[in-house]
Amino acid sequence: MLTVHQLTYRYPPASPGQPPLVVFENLSWAVEGRAAAAIVGASGVGKSTLLHVLGGLDAPAAGEVRIGSTSLWELSPTERARFRNRSIGFVFQFHHLLPEFTALENVALPMRMAGVRWDESCRRARRLLERVGLEQRQHHLPAELSGGESQRVALARALANAPPLLLADEPTGNLDERTAADVLGLLHELQRDQGLTLVLVTHDSRLAATCQQVWRLERGQLTPVVA
Ligand SMILES: Nc1ncnc2c1ncn2[C@@H]1O[C@H](COP(=O)(O)OP(=O)(O)OP(=O)(O)O)[C@@H](O)[C@H]1O
Ligand SMILES: [Mg+2]
Questions:
Q1: Residue 46 sits in which domain range?
Q2: Which side of the chain, N or C, has fewer Cβ within a 10 Å radius?
Protein backbone atom coordinates (compact mmCIF):
# COMPACT_ATOMS: atom_id res chain seq x y z
CA MET A 1 0.00 0.00 0.00
CA LEU A 2 2.62 2.52 1.13
CA THR A 3 6.20 2.16 -0.03
CA VAL A 4 9.11 4.48 0.53
CA HIS A 5 12.24 4.01 -1.50
CA GLN A 6 15.61 5.66 -0.85
CA LEU A 7 13.98 8.76 0.53
CA THR A 8 16.16 11.74 1.45
CA TYR A 9 15.03 14.95 3.11
CA ARG A 10 17.18 17.97 3.98
CA TYR A 11 16.28 21.33 5.45
CA PRO A 12 18.28 24.16 3.91
CA PRO A 13 21.00 25.65 6.16
CA ALA A 14 19.87 28.29 8.64
CA SER A 15 22.66 30.60 7.48
CA PRO A 16 24.89 30.60 4.38
CA GLY A 17 27.99 28.44 4.63
CA GLN A 18 26.40 26.06 7.12
CA PRO A 19 25.62 22.47 6.09
CA PRO A 20 21.97 21.55 5.43
CA LEU A 21 20.17 19.56 8.10
CA VAL A 22 19.77 16.01 6.82
CA VAL A 23 16.69 14.55 8.52
CA PHE A 24 16.81 11.19 6.71
CA GLU A 25 18.83 9.79 3.87
CA ASN A 26 18.10 6.76 1.66
CA LEU A 27 15.22 5.72 3.87
CA SER A 28 13.33 2.67 2.60
CA TRP A 29 10.20 1.40 4.28
CA ALA A 30 6.85 -0.23 3.52
CA VAL A 31 3.47 -0.80 5.11
CA GLU A 32 1.73 -3.71 3.46
CA GLY A 33 -2.02 -3.88 3.17
CA ARG A 34 -4.59 -2.27 5.37
CA ALA A 35 -2.62 -2.17 8.58
CA ALA A 36 -2.15 0.33 11.37
CA ALA A 37 1.51 1.27 11.76
CA ALA A 38 2.89 3.50 14.50
CA ILE A 39 6.08 5.52 14.22
CA VAL A 40 7.77 6.42 17.49
CA GLY A 41 10.97 8.32 18.14
CA ALA A 42 12.44 11.12 20.21
CA SER A 43 11.51 14.75 19.67
CA GLY A 44 13.30 16.17 16.65
CA VAL A 45 14.18 12.88 14.91
CA GLY A 46 12.00 13.77 11.94
CA LYS A 47 8.64 12.07 12.48
CA SER A 48 6.56 15.05 11.37
CA THR A 49 8.89 15.73 8.46
CA LEU A 50 8.51 12.14 7.27
CA LEU A 51 4.72 12.29 7.57
CA HIS A 52 4.64 15.54 5.58
CA VAL A 53 6.70 13.91 2.82
CA LEU A 54 4.40 10.84 2.84
CA GLY A 55 1.39 13.14 2.70
CA GLY A 56 2.60 15.17 -0.27
CA LEU A 57 3.07 18.32 1.80
CA ASP A 58 6.90 18.59 1.74
CA ALA A 59 9.02 17.53 -1.23
CA PRO A 60 11.94 15.14 -0.63
CA ALA A 61 15.40 15.87 -2.06
CA ALA A 62 15.46 12.36 -3.54
CA GLY A 63 13.63 9.07 -3.48
CA GLU A 64 10.15 7.80 -4.04
CA VAL A 65 6.87 7.61 -2.12
CA ARG A 66 4.46 5.13 -3.64
CA ILE A 67 0.84 4.94 -2.52
CA GLY A 68 -0.93 2.06 -4.21
CA SER A 69 0.28 2.35 -7.78
CA THR A 70 0.92 6.12 -7.66
CA SER A 71 4.36 7.65 -7.27
CA LEU A 72 3.45 10.74 -5.28
CA TRP A 73 6.41 12.97 -6.11
CA GLU A 74 6.34 12.19 -9.83
CA LEU A 75 2.94 13.86 -10.13
CA SER A 76 2.64 17.50 -11.17
CA PRO A 77 1.64 19.84 -8.31
CA THR A 78 -1.94 19.95 -9.62
CA GLU A 79 -2.16 16.17 -9.96
CA ARG A 80 -0.65 15.78 -6.50
CA ALA A 81 -3.18 18.17 -4.93
CA ARG A 82 -5.96 16.18 -6.57
CA PHE A 83 -4.48 12.87 -5.46
CA ARG A 84 -4.08 14.14 -1.89
CA ASN A 85 -7.66 15.34 -1.79
CA ARG A 86 -8.98 11.93 -2.78
CA SER A 87 -6.49 9.45 -1.43
CA ILE A 88 -4.75 10.81 1.66
CA GLY A 89 -6.36 11.87 4.93
CA PHE A 90 -4.16 13.92 7.26
CA VAL A 91 -4.78 14.60 10.96
CA PHE A 92 -2.47 17.14 12.56
CA GLN A 93 -1.53 17.48 16.23
CA PHE A 94 -3.47 20.72 16.37
CA HIS A 95 -6.66 20.25 14.40
CA HIS A 96 -5.99 22.96 11.73
CA LEU A 97 -9.70 23.41 11.12
CA LEU A 98 -10.65 26.54 9.17
CA PRO A 99 -11.76 28.97 11.90
CA GLU A 100 -14.41 30.81 9.91
CA PHE A 101 -16.25 27.64 8.85
CA THR A 102 -18.55 25.45 10.96
CA ALA A 103 -17.72 21.86 11.83
CA LEU A 104 -20.08 20.69 9.09
CA GLU A 105 -18.51 22.98 6.48
CA ASN A 106 -14.99 21.94 7.48
CA VAL A 107 -15.90 18.30 6.83
CA ALA A 108 -17.87 19.07 3.65
CA LEU A 109 -15.18 21.22 1.98
CA PRO A 110 -12.83 18.40 0.86
CA MET A 111 -15.80 16.69 -0.82
CA ARG A 112 -16.81 19.90 -2.54
CA MET A 113 -13.22 20.22 -3.77
CA ALA A 114 -13.48 16.68 -5.14
CA GLY A 115 -16.45 17.80 -7.24
CA VAL A 116 -19.31 16.58 -5.06
CA ARG A 117 -22.32 18.92 -5.02
CA TRP A 118 -22.57 21.11 -1.94
CA ASP A 119 -25.87 19.67 -0.64
CA GLU A 120 -24.57 16.12 -1.10
CA SER A 121 -21.25 17.09 0.57
CA CYS A 122 -23.19 18.42 3.57
CA ARG A 123 -25.32 15.30 3.74
CA ARG A 124 -22.24 13.08 3.83
CA ALA A 125 -20.47 15.44 6.25
CA ARG A 126 -23.43 15.13 8.62
CA ARG A 127 -23.09 11.33 8.51
CA LEU A 128 -19.37 11.56 9.26
CA LEU A 129 -20.02 13.90 12.19
CA GLU A 130 -22.57 11.41 13.49
CA ARG A 131 -19.91 8.72 13.17
CA VAL A 132 -17.56 10.69 15.45
CA GLY A 133 -20.41 11.51 17.85
CA LEU A 134 -20.75 15.20 16.98
CA GLU A 135 -24.11 15.53 15.25
CA GLN A 136 -25.10 18.03 17.97
CA ARG A 137 -22.10 20.25 17.19
CA GLN A 138 -22.32 20.52 13.41
CA HIS A 139 -23.06 24.26 13.35
CA HIS A 140 -20.36 25.19 15.86
CA LEU A 141 -17.27 27.08 14.77
CA PRO A 142 -13.92 25.53 15.76
CA ALA A 143 -13.56 28.16 18.52
CA GLU A 144 -16.81 26.85 20.00
CA LEU A 145 -15.58 23.25 20.23
CA SER A 146 -13.45 21.57 22.89
CA GLY A 147 -10.00 20.20 21.98
CA GLY A 148 -11.26 16.62 21.74
CA GLU A 149 -14.29 17.66 19.70
CA SER A 150 -12.10 19.64 17.30
CA GLN A 151 -9.85 16.64 16.86
CA ARG A 152 -12.88 14.44 16.11
CA VAL A 153 -14.04 16.96 13.50
CA ALA A 154 -10.50 16.88 12.04
CA LEU A 155 -10.76 13.09 11.90
CA ALA A 156 -14.13 13.31 10.12
CA ARG A 157 -12.61 15.81 7.67
CA ALA A 158 -9.62 13.55 7.01
CA LEU A 159 -12.05 10.74 6.12
CA ALA A 160 -14.31 12.94 3.99
CA ASN A 161 -13.35 11.44 0.64
CA ALA A 162 -12.88 7.91 2.05
CA PRO A 163 -9.10 7.92 1.43
CA PRO A 164 -7.29 4.57 1.50
CA LEU A 165 -4.43 6.15 3.50
CA LEU A 166 -4.74 8.05 6.76
CA LEU A 167 -1.73 9.86 8.23
CA ALA A 168 -1.99 11.14 11.80
CA ASP A 169 0.69 13.24 13.49
CA GLU A 170 0.34 13.09 17.28
CA PRO A 171 -3.44 13.32 16.85
CA THR A 172 -3.99 13.00 20.61
CA GLY A 173 -0.86 14.81 21.80
CA ASN A 174 -2.85 17.86 22.79
CA LEU A 175 -5.63 16.07 24.68
CA ASP A 176 -6.11 14.82 28.24
CA GLU A 177 -5.63 11.10 28.80
CA ARG A 178 -9.32 10.16 28.76
CA THR A 179 -10.15 12.20 25.63
CA ALA A 180 -6.98 10.94 23.95
CA ALA A 181 -8.09 7.35 24.59
CA ASP A 182 -11.52 8.13 23.08
CA VAL A 183 -10.06 9.71 19.93
CA LEU A 184 -7.52 6.91 19.54
CA GLY A 185 -10.25 4.28 19.97
CA LEU A 186 -12.28 6.01 17.29
CA LEU A 187 -9.27 6.21 14.99
CA HIS A 188 -8.74 2.45 15.26
CA GLU A 189 -12.43 1.71 14.84
CA LEU A 190 -12.54 3.75 11.64
CA GLN A 191 -9.31 2.20 10.41
CA ARG A 192 -10.79 -1.29 10.80
CA ASP A 193 -14.27 -0.46 9.50
CA GLN A 194 -13.05 1.34 6.41
CA GLY A 195 -10.05 -0.92 5.83
CA LEU A 196 -7.59 1.96 5.78
CA THR A 197 -3.86 1.98 6.00
CA LEU A 198 -3.07 4.12 9.03
CA VAL A 199 0.29 5.66 9.87
CA LEU A 200 0.21 7.12 13.38
CA VAL A 201 3.07 9.22 14.69
CA THR A 202 3.37 9.37 18.46
CA HIS A 203 6.08 9.70 21.09
CA ASP A 204 3.93 7.61 23.45
CA SER A 205 4.86 3.93 23.27
CA ARG A 206 1.59 2.94 24.97
CA LEU A 207 -0.40 4.55 22.17
CA ALA A 208 1.92 3.02 19.60
CA ALA A 209 1.31 -0.44 21.04
CA THR A 210 -2.34 -0.18 19.96
CA CYS A 211 -1.13 -0.53 16.35
CA GLN A 212 -0.32 -3.83 14.63
CA GLN A 213 3.15 -2.59 13.69
CA VAL A 214 5.47 -0.28 15.59
CA TRP A 215 8.51 1.36 14.03
CA ARG A 216 11.20 3.52 15.60
CA LEU A 217 12.67 6.45 13.72
CA GLU A 218 16.24 6.99 14.78
CA ARG A 219 19.22 8.49 12.97
CA GLY A 220 17.15 8.72 9.81
CA GLN A 221 16.19 5.04 9.66
CA LEU A 222 13.04 3.12 10.57
CA THR A 223 13.46 -0.15 12.44
CA PRO A 224 10.70 -2.44 13.70
CA VAL A 225 10.07 -2.43 17.44
CA VAL A 226 9.43 -5.93 18.67
CA ALA A 227 6.84 -6.03 21.46
N1 LIG B 1 11.23 24.33 8.78
C2 LIG B 1 12.34 23.82 9.29
N3 LIG B 1 13.56 24.31 8.95
C4 LIG B 1 14.69 23.79 9.44
N5 LIG B 1 14.73 22.73 10.28
C6 LIG B 1 13.55 22.19 10.66
C7 LIG B 1 12.30 22.70 10.18
N8 LIG B 1 11.31 21.95 10.72
C9 LIG B 1 11.91 21.04 11.50
N10 LIG B 1 13.26 21.17 11.47
C11 LIG B 1 14.25 20.32 12.15
O12 LIG B 1 14.17 19.02 11.59
C13 LIG B 1 14.27 18.01 12.59
C14 LIG B 1 13.06 17.12 12.52
O15 LIG B 1 11.89 17.85 12.90
P16 LIG B 1 10.47 17.18 13.05
O17 LIG B 1 9.50 18.25 13.33
O18 LIG B 1 10.24 16.33 11.88
O19 LIG B 1 10.71 16.27 14.34
P20 LIG B 1 9.68 15.34 15.15
O21 LIG B 1 10.28 13.99 15.25
O22 LIG B 1 8.33 15.46 14.58
O23 LIG B 1 9.70 16.01 16.62
P24 LIG B 1 8.52 16.16 17.71
O25 LIG B 1 8.36 14.80 18.36
O26 LIG B 1 9.06 17.16 18.68
O27 LIG B 1 7.27 16.63 17.00
C28 LIG B 1 14.42 18.76 13.91
O29 LIG B 1 15.79 18.74 14.24
C30 LIG B 1 13.95 20.15 13.62
O31 LIG B 1 14.66 21.09 14.38
MG1 LIG C 1 6.49 16.26 15.25
A1: 2-224
A2: C
